[in-house]
Amino acid sequence: MEAREARKLLEQVASGDVTVDQALARFQTAPFSDLGYAKVDHHRALAQGVSEVIYGEGKTAGQILGICRSMESAGQKRVLITRLDSQKAQALSPDLDLEYFELPRVGLIGGMPQPDGAGYVAVACAGTSDLYAAEEAALTAEALGSRVLRLYDVGVAGIHRLLAHSDEIARARAVVAVAGMEGALPSVVAGLASCPVIAVPTSVGYGASFGGVAALLAMLNSCASGISVVNIDNGFGAGYLASMIDHIGVVE
Amino acid sequence: MEAREARKLLEQVASGDVTVDQALARFQTAPFSDLGYAKVDHHRALAQGVSEVIYGEGKTAGQILGICRSMESAGQKRVLITRLDSQKAQALSPDLDLEYFELPRVGLIGGMPQPDGAGYVAVACAGTSDLYAAEEAALTAEALGSRVLRLYDVGVAGIHRLLAHSDEIARARAVVAVAGMEGALPSVVAGLASCPVIAVPTSVGYGASFGGVAALLAMLNSCASGISVVNIDNGFGAGYLASMIDHIGVVE
Amino acid sequence: MEAREARKLLEQVASGDVTVDQALARFQTAPFSDLGYAKVDHHRALAQGVSEVIYGEGKTAGQILGICRSMESAGQKRVLITRLDSQKAQALSPDLDLEYFELPRVGLIGGMPQPDGAGYVAVACAGTSDLYAAEEAALTAEALGSRVLRLYDVGVAGIHRLLAHSDEIARARAVVAVAGMEGALPSVVAGLASCPVIAVPTSVGYGASFGGVAALLAMLNSCASGISVVNIDNGFGAGYLASMIDHIGVVE
Amino acid sequence: MEAREARKLLEQVASGDVTVDQALARFQTAPFSDLGYAKVDHHRALAQGVSEVIYGEGKTAGQILGICRSMESAGQKRVLITRLDSQKAQALSPDLDLEYFELPRVGLIGGMPQPDGAGYVAVACAGTSDLYAAEEAALTAEALGSRVLRLYDVGVAGIHRLLAHSDEIARARAVVAVAGMEGALPSVVAGLASCPVIAVPTSVGYGASFGGVAALLAMLNSCASGISVVNIDNGFGAGYLASMIDHIGVVE
Amino acid sequence: MEAREARKLLEQVASGDVTVDQALARFQTAPFSDLGYAKVDHHRALAQGVSEVIYGEGKTAGQILGICRSMESAGQKRVLITRLDSQKAQALSPDLDLEYFELPRVGLIGGMPQPDGAGYVAVACAGTSDLYAAEEAALTAEALGSRVLRLYDVGVAGIHRLLAHSDEIARARAVVAVAGMEGALPSVVAGLASCPVIAVPTSVGYGASFGGVAALLAMLNSCASGISVVNIDNGFGAGYLASMIDHIGVVE
Amino acid sequence: MEAREARKLLEQVASGDVTVDQALARFQTAPFSDLGYAKVDHHRALAQGVSEVIYGEGKTAGQILGICRSMESAGQKRVLITRLDSQKAQALSPDLDLEYFELPRVGLIGGMPQPDGAGYVAVACAGTSDLYAAEEAALTAEALGSRVLRLYDVGVAGIHRLLAHSDEIARARAVVAVAGMEGALPSVVAGLASCPVIAVPTSVGYGASFGGVAALLAMLNSCASGISVVNIDNGFGAGYLASMIDHIGVVE
Amino acid sequence: MEAREARKLLEQVASGDVTVDQALARFQTAPFSDLGYAKVDHHRALAQGVSEVIYGEGKTAGQILGICRSMESAGQKRVLITRLDSQKAQALSPDLDLEYFELPRVGLIGGMPQPDGAGYVAVACAGTSDLYAAEEAALTAEALGSRVLRLYDVGVAGIHRLLAHSDEIARARAVVAVAGMEGALPSVVAGLASCPVIAVPTSVGYGASFGGVAALLAMLNSCASGISVVNIDNGFGAGYLASMIDHIGVVE
Amino acid sequence: MEAREARKLLEQVASGDVTVDQALARFQTAPFSDLGYAKVDHHRALAQGVSEVIYGEGKTAGQILGICRSMESAGQKRVLITRLDSQKAQALSPDLDLEYFELPRVGLIGGMPQPDGAGYVAVACAGTSDLYAAEEAALTAEALGSRVLRLYDVGVAGIHRLLAHSDEIARARAVVAVAGMEGALPSVVAGLASCPVIAVPTSVGYGASFGGVAALLAMLNSCASGISVVNIDNGFGAGYLASMIDHIGVVE
Predict the structure, then answer these.
(1) Are C154 and A39 in contact (CB under 8 A)?
(2) Which of D247, D249, D241, D118 is nearest to D176 (CA)?
(3) Among all residues of chain G, which has the CA nearest to that of D131?
(4) What is the CA radius of gyration of chain A?
(5) pLDDT at B107
(6) In this complex, which of E152, E158, E204 lies closest to F41 when CB atoms are compared?
(7) What is the per-residue pLDDT across B8-56, written as a single tens digit (0 to 9) for each?
């Protein structure tokens, strides 16, 4: 509860418009719906700008449906469901108006919004195998109202493929750089960019890639400035953050 | 070299104002000074907004002095030197007008600038022992023109200490959340913030903290959105990125 | 064998009521039934208060049945079987009066006892995906005679959901705090509690969660006091310990 | 703030005894003293039973003195300072009435209290080299009002040394089991005990002990019930928890 | 673009044979075909000697077919496809003239070339289980024009099996030494060889082999000179490098 | 080739009984059969006492059959095949007179020999789930001519179950101690034994057992003397070594 | 207490020669001297053949002296002190008749005994830097009555240096193989030996040797039979075990 | 011993020119000098081209001197000593004509030879802090007869600094690419090179660089072809291998 709200409530107590018990309840009651298996957090929507994201992994189709219904009844139009495998997507289809993206395993209810950010988000990935994470980032940013420029298969071993896009990188509001294996892309990209670069290590690779650890460590140790890192395969987190940056100065 | 510059150069070749050899040299010559032990990158200043940062670790006082001189002669007024131990700082003092901050081991030439960001950067840290990294972040952001709000010793085990600053976190342009040990601060902070949260794990702790790995992993796995992570003890990287975000919409 | 028993036995030897060979046998014979594949430990029941727990993983349905039968013939009424997959549960159903809980993979013979602890055990978990471990803890504590208060989906990224239960945490006899990903819940909970907090890291997460290692490390490094940690996904161990604490001062 | 307090405050607002601004301030103000480098948490004392513990590592003698003074002025008589090296202890001696224990690096202000727990805490350690952590646990428990029984050098390779103390273990209210190297002590102890066993891995060992990781893993994987684990070398945490358990049913 | 090419282009601009816009396009256009999901790099062929290798893992049969067609239209006769599982190989068979090697999962279009290296590449492996990686190396080297001598099942525990081939090792142009488990083969081989030894750790083993990490570490720590290491199971990389060395002095 | 053999050969060269070329061939030819996919090592039989062990993992039924046939033709009567899954065992049954042990996945050709060691090998294991590795060790030792005493389910959490066998441990020629989870059994066993104890960590456990790493580390760090360790789940290695020790003084 | 002893004691109780209280005391009293900081275990001497080894690390010179005196008064003539740094050795010199070996940091009281084993122990090490651990093994075996053959600097990269000693390895009763870096020596040695090979990884190396982990893993994964492994740098453990094997059939 | 030599020896035995005992001795004697602490391997010189390298770490100045003297008496003119700290260098100075390079800790006896390779070795490093390893590589290659081109401070975050040297990289016979932190340099370099690239990870970095592990993993996972990797900080190994490649076709 923000200070303004608290002050108003206290003034109502002072004026007698609200009883002590009512106020106490207000101070104690958290603004979420309790579904038993989940507390749907309508308050967080206010605090973070979007409440409509569901992490699908480890939830049954039934639980996801219940959460969507609860959100709907709270007035949410658009819901993004990440880590939604195709089986659950199929199970949800009769009940929800769901657009499903198979490669990044993303479901969308309510359609893509018109972009309303200040610029665009560039999503670059090193190889074809990294597309799943890059698309998760791109779709997330689009779902949150950002225009997205995709720069795919621009790994550093063929550096001219990346350099051909120097200008587009230089003009972006935020860059998401996705790479597995040696994870070198973000370092080079950050040298070309003048905006925040969000590095996404992927689990692409074999042997000593250790499921993305090699790429993760490389990105954490980047010698370039302006880079920060999210979890392995966390395209959603990067897209979310990039879109947040793309809306700075817009929503305020 | 940007497209515009390249076009102009090519037009000069076409018009005969620039010879083929001169143009070739321009295309081949990188815009940096070669000191032998280091290539001082004047070009990067243009690309990334600041060229005046020197990573002091693993450089001798003599090398640092040389790089500062080279920067100075290229017109740089303000230089930030990170990871500068007190011995080197003392060695540099006679030759440079250096302000030295002992705890975060930061040196500054040219004084702090007037803040010119769009808002302020909040730097929160969990415990007294994390101050060195928090101050590195804070001083970096200030040196790059951001106003900084320090929220220190607000670890999650005494959650009310942090909640007392909810409003200040909610209004920040960017938050740097610094923590060692279990590294839980960024998750809670991100729930209170509506801006990017940059998480800095510190090497504070013992035993199974593994020099900051526990905090690093916690931050990478945060269940909150809007968080990204930098390397262990990388206060500089977080401050740099936070200030970059604080200037979005301002410098453009 | 306790001192009293040993003294009595020795006195019987001295008095001739027990022969040397009989006494030797008593000193040498361990108080367990040997089924070949397992030694069912009737002695441990005395030492630890419950002998009726079977760890189902890596045992065949036949072996579990054999152990149950042996326990039954030794007078055990109630047996808790953990890590019991649904196939084995089904295989055991014709032979045993088994109540089966699918999510936590727990089987119970003999029904839940009346709570006889001194207070109640609070079981809190961070997210919906952690329910399996939280329920294993809750059912274990209930099977051992504790009243359990479930506080689910109270992760720290939406701190008000947890704070809404501050009082219930403050009044508990023991708290089990279950979390995957960044594992921050126990630290915040311990700040609100005045009783032992048993932290259970879960394997929920992806990428750099490393199957629960991130949460485990976070919990081991908690800056709060009164916390101890059990193995990843070890809901049973936490529930067992919490119930043990809940019965302190009661059973003695 | 607890519900009772909040209700009283709201009633005062309703009755006009407290103004809205005063109440708002109360709701917003956290109950701690801000020393700049640390927020001394007088509230936590209420919540957790002791506020008088200072973690000395990473704090200067000056900072520790400041915190002690602040605590003193808030009425605290007894302060335990852990991880206090002998140099700082010496530096603090002129200003504080400090009793210093060199091996476990513990300082105590205000003297040991009379034991007021319900039973006693047994502190067992495997080898002579583990004494530093065992003593940290023992002194902590004593400082918090528990009677402590020390069982030292009872490692499992000479199992009869441990078995000679079976009765004393069986009658304890809580056992702290301290071991480095293979960390097997807690498993055997838990088989002999009927109370919670808190396992403390130590960094004693070499080679593949990896600074205590081998012992830590062994303890987390114990096949015995009733065991939980704290961080490597965290004697304080174990002693704190053991004393908390020793006071269950007493302080309430 | 190499300097010669750049000079020529610039001269054409100077002479007016090429317009500024054409030159700009040349400087900006990267020499690859963009298939959407992949940028087929015809330039790299020039730079590295072979462009005809496709890493099959994580690409659909359709994508592989598309890339092959693009290469074909660019004039490539011979294409090596690594990490191609048998299902994809079967799916590609109707459309491509593909020779398939099941054990190393390698596909070849265009047939094996005549060897044109300066000597031969020896491929040694420690055990029968390592054959898959050894064959990937051998086939790669053959596809790139090297004669290959296979020395299989020559692990160091039966050292005379290896010593029987001392001469053949001593006369090789490059040796690929493949081993899992303790990974000792390359060290012994390097003592017998007078040419570069490329060590390939395999994921063969169990328990503390950690999927090849034990062998990888052994090879990185070899006390013999002239050894370098590639990723676990990276037979391709070793075969590629060995053939490159085999062609030194030939292609130049 | 041993010195005596070499001397004899050289004497024959000197006397002209053997030509230079024949001797050279003898010195160069290794005493093994090359099956292409494997070099069957008849020489090793002499060097190590048994040549009749085949590691079945990663070999096809056909390859195993081929190796058996080659051994048979070289005069081997008894062959032990480890890590032989039941499918391959079934495939080999029509062609070989194979006795198959399912739990430890061991196949035996030629039947168990009469024990001819100096004493007996005790094989102890901590829990029912460790039986597979314990049986691999036991069967191996028996196949190599040792009498084996099985002591199963004697984990340290119920220490009296183990102590009941103190005498049998004290009289063994060699002890194999098998344990997963915390791996404490060998330490306690070694305190009771006066012969070499071979510790076998198993992959039994979950969470922070890391597939046997916890047990492995515990065993490597044992504070007891006379212990050595083999790889995780390497029951064969332990049984082989125990039988070797059991035959010391016998075969010589 | 062994069965015979227990029977005798019980018979004395039956006959009245020993009172119940005396017998009880005997059953309860452990056969060790309690020095406060250590329990000197005179019983273990009987069980394991030597009681005279002190692990010097982490013990003060005073504590070591006390333990030696206690042993002396219990009749011990010969005491081996391992991990004894030169400072402590110097401090002990006036009080004890101590022979000190600096490289392996071993102290010996009572002089080397006449060898009384059945054969000899070969101690091989890979490089000059491994000498400290090899000597710890060699001296330990000698102090326990074994004849030792030292084969130093026989690393596998120059395989002929090792092969020159094939016969001496083939005739040993036990081999200790010491190596750092890639740890390949034991595998090759075991192929030449017909007795147990005890592998000692050393912490010699740099970079990815990780303080001996690379060598440790290599040794655990050896493809040769008859090998077992001790902790990194644990020359003592290997020498102890080798001498134990060397005395099999002798002492019994 | 090579086949030719063996044949000759055998012919001498046949002809009676060499007695059986002499021949036996020849077959048994390894061609090295045994200094007690080291076996100086004169044979390896023949096998590997250089015998004159001493790894100085873990050897005393006296031992190094002894080895040099032994080499000298065997006719060696030039000796390279790596990992030689300045103290030992100083200690050796009076006795040896030693040129000492402080940064890479390399000593050289006999002076630099004239380059006699086929081309040149390019040694590139990412940052100023990596110079120590780059120089170790460069000096090693020079000492072995290669011309070296140094390209220092060309890290990928300022990609144009590296691209300015594209031609020099493209024309090299072998490239050594040295980098710490994220270790991305070799991938980009390999895209520009047409010769083998030897990647050297350095221990430069902090936090999650883990002493060079991050760079090592990145290099092992490089998506570029033609790369192989040596141990962390192993500049010597890379320089040795690069020079070996530089001499292919020359020495033969």
Answers:
(1) yes
(2) D241
(3) G37
(4) 21
(5) 96
(6) E158
(7) 777 788 888 888 777 766 654 434 566 666 666 544 443 344 457 899 9
CB atoms within 10 A of CB B75: 9
E3 touches chain F (CB under 8 A): no
What residue spans of D103-234 are helical by DSSP H? 131-143, 159-163, 166-170, 185-192, 213-220
Asked if F207 and C29 come within 8 Å (Cβ–Cβ), the reply is: no
Collapse the DSSP code of A81 into the 3-class scheme (helix H, G, I; strand E, B; otherwise coil) and give the result: strand
List own/partner pairs for B100-105 with CB under 8 A and 24 or more apart. Answer: B101/B135, B101/B139, B103/B131, B103/B132, B103/B135, B104/B132, B104/B133, B104/B135, B104/B136, B104/B139, B104/B235, B105/B56, B105/B132, B105/B136
Between CA C44 and CA C32 the distance in angstroms is: 9
Sequence-ordered list of residues with C-beta below 8 angstroms from that of B155, at least 6 positions apart, any chain: B126, B127, B161, B162, B179, B184, B185, C223
What does the alpha-carbon distance between residue G204 and residue E223 come to, in Å, rounded to a whole number?
Answer: 11
Structure tokens at E92: 């590609």
Q: Report how far residue E52's alpha carbon sits from residue F19's, in angstroms, rounded to the nearest whole number.
A: 53
**What is the 3-state composition of chain C as percent helix, strand, coil, each rounded to the nearest 5?**
45, 20, 35
Of A1-15, C50-64, C99-113, H169-183, the one with minimum mean pLDDT is: A1-15
**E174-179 and E120-125 strand pairing:** parallel
Averaged pLDDT, F48-70 = 81
pLDDT by residue, tens only, chain D of 252 residues: 444 566 677 778 878 888 777 776 565 443 456 666 666 654 444 334 444 789 999 888 998 999 899 888 877 888 999 999 999 999 999 999 999 999 999 999 999 999 999 999 999 999 989 999 999 999 999 999 999 999 999 999 889 889 999 999 999 999 999 999 999 999 999 999 999 999 999 999 999 999 999 999 999 999 999 999 999 999 999 999 999 999 998 744
Q: Which tens digit of pLDDT belongs to each residue from D62-106? A: 989 998 998 888 778 889 999 999 999 999 999 999 999 999 999
Counting DSSP H helices and E strands in chain A, the numbers are: 11, 11
Cα gap C146→C245, rounded to integer Å: 10
Q: What is d(CA G65, CA G122) in angstroms, rounded to the nearest whole number?
A: 32
- The rounded distance, in Å, linking the Cα atoms of G112 and G45 is 18
Cross-strand pairs, C120: C147
The Cα C148–Cα B64 span in angstroms is 63
G158 touches chain H (CB under 8 A): yes
Q: What SS3 state is found at F23?
A: helix
**Can you tell me the distance from the alpha carbon of A191 to that of A180, in angstroms, rounded to the nearest whole number?**
19
Note whether A204 contacts H: Cβ–Cβ < 8 A.
no
| Cross-chain residue pair D203–B207, CB shorter than 8 Å | yes
Q: Which residue's entry shows tokens 């956290």? A: D30
E-contacting residues in F 25-44 (Cβ below 8 Å): 28-32, 36-39, 41, 43-44
The distance of Cα F228 from the centroid of its chain, to the nearest Å, equals 15
Which amino acid is it at C205?
Answer: G
The alpha carbon of G59 is separated from its chain's Cα centroid by a whole number of angstroms, namely: 18
The pLDDT-based confidence of B1 (bands split at 50, 70, 90) is very low
Assigned token pair, B195: 């801006």
Taking only the tens place, the pLDDT of each residue in E73-110 is 877 888 999 999 999 999 999 999 999 999 999 999 99
Place of tokens 């770490």: H57
Chain H residues lying within 8 Å of G128, measured CB to CB: 37-38, 58-59, 63
Residue D222 to chain C, least CA–CA distance (Å): 9
**Diameter of chain F measured on Cα atoms:** 73
